[in-house]
Amino acid sequence: MTDPVIRALSASDARLFDALPDPLGAREGHRRTRFRPDWKRVVLRDGEVVARGAWWGGPDDPEPLNINWFDVAEGEEEAGAELLRSAPWQVELEINLPAGWRDEPDLRAAAETRFAAARAAGYELLVERFLYRWTPERGLPERPGRLRFSAEPDDTVFFDALRRIHSVTLDAHALRAIEEGGLDQAAQEELDFFHWCPSPREWWQIAYTPEGGLAGVHIPAHNPSGPTIGFIGVVPEQRGHGYAYDLLAECTHFLVEEGAEFISGGTDQGNFPMAANFAKAGFPVVSERINFHPGRRAA
Questions:
Q1: C-alpha distances out from residue 70 to 27, 67, 196, Å
Q2: CB contact at 8 A, 44 and 4
């Protein structure tokens, strides 16, 4: 067996990226994703593609934000690991999988091959997530009418609310940010993401109880793939009333009123309350996502 050759692609040879089978249906999942040819890389062995990765970012990002398409042929885990290790960008890895993939032997084997390659490259599991997609035939969730919603132009109000929300959180990305830099970093990362989204800043909303107390925030958003539930969060002192559902219902209505014909969403699989709220609001699970982050060996 000859040594593998890692090749960065360009517009002229981007077709090589399509030379590997797609058992996990990544191509269908990325119908709306725009990849830059020069952010795609493949591994060739004897002229055949045995691993591939597509790094992704927004249209104005100077560097990729993550890897969201990563495939490895069976038995080529080390080639896949070297593809990750040798890349000029060490960013989070997202592996998208069909819902219920663990129950299908072929899908599970394909997924485990990718996981093994990621771990061999020094990547560490961060979280498993459910991904949702609402469509009009599901019907709009009922608005409970318990909260008052208003726009808020001052980012410091959102920053303070996000610090309070993340002071008690189940979100793995927020917990990692808190471990690295405290609540300020967790809140700032959320704000940075909201500003990065191409949707209007005026969409962000604060929610208040009938008595005027802060209940939480919801962020209707568009990412480059379309309308999405950007963020739902209830401050700790207002939890136990089911307000997360109120926020999700309002966010859904808001996006539909802005013309959304579908709405995506996601939550960590361990966040059982939020998963239940998505189900109640008519958001079915359409796929799953495994997030890995670069560990010490990949840094």
A1: 11, 7, 24
A2: yes
DSSP 137: G
Confidence at residue 296, expressed as pLDDT on a 0 to 100 scale: 60
CA-CA distances (angstroms) from residue 153 to 72, 201, 203?
A: 46, 8, 10
How many angstroms separate the Cα of 192 from the Cα of each of 88, 137, 158, 169? 23, 33, 12, 19
3-state DSSP assignment of residue 165: helix
- Confidence band of 20 (pLDDT split at 50, 70, 90): very high
User: What confidence category does residue 298 fall into, taking pLDDT thresholds of 50, 70 and 90?
Assistant: very low
Q: How far apart are CA 153 and CA 135, in angstroms?
A: 30
Spatial CA neighbour of 233 closest among 160, 152, 284: 160
Helices assigned H by DSSP within the chain: 26-29, 77-86, 105-120, 155-166, 172-196, 243-257, 272-280
**pLDDT over 90 (residue 225):** no
Question: The tokens of 249 are what?
Answer: 């219902």
